[in-house]
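Could you help me review a protein record that somebody else here produced? What it holds is a sequence and that sequence's fold in token form. I have pasted the whole thing underneath without changing anything:
=====
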Amino acid sequence: MDTRTLIAILLIFVIYIVFLSPKPKPIQNEAVVTNSISAPATDAPALKSTGTAVQQASADTRLRQAVVMMKNNLIEVALNGLGQAQRVQFLQYAMTPKAKERMAETFSGNGLNSSQVEIAGSVLEWSLVSQNATELKLQGKTKDGLIVQRTMTLPNDSYSLRTSDKVINSSGKTIRTSLAVDLHRSNLVHQESGGFWQHLLHPQSAEIHEALYFKEGDVTRTPLQQMEKTEAIDQSVITAAGYSEKYFFFGLVPTQFSLQSYRLEKNADGSFDMTLVSPEKQIAPGATGEFEYAFYMGPKNIQDLRNANPELEQVVDYGSWIGPISRFLLGILHFFYKWIPNYGVGIILLTILVKLALYPLAFKSAVSMRRLQQVQPKMKAIRDRYKEDKTRMNAEMMNLYKSEKVNPVGGCLPLLLQMPVFFALYRVFFSSIEFRHAPFFGWIRDLSAHDPYFVTPILMTGLMWLQQKLTPMPPAMEENEAVHIQRQMMKWMPIIFGAIMIFLPAGLTLYFLVNAMISIAQQVYLNKHLNLRYPLEHKIAV
């Protein structure tokens, strides 16, 4: 491979990290470290109007100030007496790799969720029926005899708080009813961005906060820190919506109906409200209508998201064109993890698998480069003969390539084919919660964070330098300023690449390190084989 191609590939990699990878401004969320969930605040404001002409129920102050604890093996949720989540603690996720404190998220104001069953001309008065660790029952009544029975359950092995609102029409007339759910997100505190170098050298420091909704199988995302005006759609079919962070998702997932309207607005205090309204139902006298839905409050783990709703796996953003490759590679890593529960070992096995798959092409490319070296004298003769006629020189060069069956860019193909793998793995380590705090061995306790002692990037830099020395390159037939600059770039490229990798995820650095080790062994074998089959005047070192 010629130096220009290597330099171009390096620049492509840098451009991808800086401009194409996830890079919202770093912001600080409300995650709190705690060992137990305390009582929620008691000064929550009244329910926000959904903008309809329907009268809203004034909730009982005692229900707002009540503390209801629900818990399964995955999460512990603190709600008030109206079923509004005030705080959620993730029992399977620690704040840091060595910490005992569990991750927790606190929701201010009304909490995360406010659900209103809207009945034209009626006001619901709510009361608490019963509660335990996995179930909360409420009942709302109107003065004219309408009853709404709300049941909220937290099944085991689930991050979904399932809710059922059963509307019983005991009046003598047909009623019209709909469900309006408000998802609240408190204000996000912006931090000053470190600019180009901050994002280049420490890209995973950038948090992600966005609102999203699913419509006709596609997901639409709105970065909250970039939102300036209210967004709204109506008369549509929305199957899920919510707020997404880097590793966690909080959203509404209807189970037996779709939503017809979506409204996202930024409040004066910097907080956000997402209002979701279902289509209207007509309930005949003596009949019953029901709204079943769930609030997902959990990690952006693809399997957990699928369990809540198959569409939700798209919440994990691996990019558009690179996404299928990222998901395929993640599936391979999951397969290896089932047999050897260490993602670092899985990365090593994945690297070996990729190198084996590309070996036939690498061998063919090495032969092409060796043949190119053999015809260097003929190429020099053409340059000398037609140095005054560039068009004729290029035509004769092409004829030479065809007659000798050599490809001047053949040596680039293996590396070019690996670039999508590199980019896809970058997105996997950046976005997948599986690698958050996933240890390898020794000092590497988190494959999603950079190597704390920079051992792997330093080793990778040294191995890249050695690999470069072993890789045969077509010798320059004439020494000039351009050739000198290219050689200097080649000399410094391993150091530049190593500097870029210093603050990238340790999992990605491990992939590059193992790839370099295998490439050196492969190159030694190829050099030995090619010296016998395609001898040169000066043999390549093995």
Observations:
- The chain has a mean pLDDT of 81.
- The chain has twelve helices and 22 strands.
